[in-house]
Design a protein that fits this description.
By secondary structure, the protein is of the alpha/beta class. The longest helix has 20 residues. α6 packs antiparallel against α7. The strands form two sheets. Strands 5-4-6-7 form a four-stranded parallel beta sheet. It contains seven helices and seven strands, in the order αβαββαβαββαβαα. It starts with a helix and ends with a helix.
Length: about 200
């Protein structure tokens, strides 16, 4: 947290947007103790009330898994961040919810969590009927490489479903601009003053 303290003490900033927030994030407690304005991109523990915004990773992965189940596959794998990471725990809960809702038992070998790369997966070829993933392609310089590896572990004719984020183009771009410049700030004002600040920033 020392860089934050240095910037505050030097009077170089009036506030912070902190990202990749995790459980018991020391930056949150530090900025609260200093009573310095900040917004968190990522939720913190419920008892630690701060202005924050986040994507609903659990809902995203739940919807992706439900879609695969509706298509027919039952052996569905999930690749997630290490246990104990806030984002990883949140996202993978959607997978478990969807599988439980469908009455589908999960084999331990279908769940892989940990640090790694998209170019190598710890599964034999054609191991799964389907596979779900979240926010992979935005973090790799060569999307074709992890896509080849994903295809390797899914049986021929299987399905791969992913949750990704992108800025729309073409006719959808003006609607997206309207949403982020008008809709999101207005929605924030309806919810709370803190959310209004977040909406204005976004």
């Amino acid at each position: 947290v020392s860089p934050y303290g240095d910037l505050i003490d030097a009077g170089r900033v009036d506030g912070f947007v902190i990202s990749s927030v995790n459980y018991q994030d020391p930056r949150v407690s530090f900025l609260q103790e200093r009573q310095f304005p900040f917004v968190a991109f990522g939720r913190v523990l419920p008892e630690n009330s701060v202005a924050s915004i986040d994507v609903d990773g659990a809902a995203g992965l739940r919807l992706a898994t439900q879609h695969l189940l509706e298509l027919g596959p039952r052996r569905i794998a999930v690749l997630g961040w290490p246990k104990g990471s806030r984002v990883g725990d949140d996202r993978i809960s959607g997978y478990f919810d969807a599988m439980a809702g469908a009455g589908q038992a999960i084999q331990p070998a279908w769940v892989a969590r940990g640090e790694g790369t998209g170019e190598w997966l710890p599964f034999p070829g054609s191991s799964f009927d389907a596979l779900t993933l979240t926010y992979l392609l935005r973090y790799v310089s060569d999307p074709a490489a992890p896509l080849r590896e994903l295809a390797r572990v899914v049986r021929p004719g299987g399905t791969i479903a992913g949750l990704e984020f992108a800025v729309p183009h073409g006719v959808w771009r003006p609607w997206w601009e309207l949403y982020v410049r008008v809709g999101l700030p207005l929605a924030g004002r309806v919810i709370s003053p803190g959310w209004a600040e977040v909406g204005d920033f976004l």
